[in-house]
Amino acid sequence: MINVVAKHFVKEDKVAEFIEKAKKLVECTLKEEGCIKYGLFQDENNPAILTIIEEWENKSALDRHMKTEHFLSIVPVLGALDEKPKEINLYKKVV
Amino acid sequence: MINVVAKHFVKEDKVAEFIEKAKKLVECTLKEEGCIKYGLFQDENNPAILTIIEEWENKSALDRHMKTEHFLSIVPVLGALDEKPKEINLYKKVV
Question: What is the pLDDT of residue A80?
């Protein structure tokens, strides 16, 4: 199992557009084999912080995800709406 | 529902101690009413990044958690093992 947290710092005037585009990404990704969880979350105190929290069966499923058409077409668009580079962490569960 | 991501940057020589203490916190917290998920995760590329990812039924459950004996006794100990202040985000799910 592998977990990913991708934290985006979105330009203030681009938050609605980011959410709209990210919704499509979530919808397509949830249909992928090996995807256990994939959700979009908004910070309670700063609505411009938008984070995707993911859970994958294994690294292969995550690698396949990053080659899908929806990933390759939507993720660069999301990046262009960011104020600064996103923070991505890949995690293994300890307990 | 409320989600929390608490990202700790732990002193390199304190990683094992952090994990040991955090395991106890996880064990106690999972028994709390209103706790849906509560796990400790280690970054695949930097083992000194240790993150607690949480899911709570509501804000009241999270508030109660922060008053429990295990929270009040263990969280400060974890903080003392950190290299720099932890990053905490409270999230609501968008999709």
Answer: 98
**With contacts defined as CB-CB under 8 Å, which chain A residues touch B45?**
90
Is B8 in contact with B49 (CB distance < 8 Å)? yes
**A4-38: per-residue pLDDT in tens?**
999 999 999 999 999 999 999 999 999 999 999 99
- B4 alpha carbon, distance to own chain's centre: 8
Q: Please name the fold of domain A2-48+57-91.
A: Alpha-Beta Plaits (3.30.70)
The full set of domain ranges for chain A reads 2-48+57-91
Query: Do the chains contact at A19 and B90, CB–CB below 8 Å?
Result: no
Helix (H, G, I), strand (E, B) or coil at A1: coil
Structure ipTM:
0.95
Domain spanning B10-51+58-86, CATH class: alpha beta
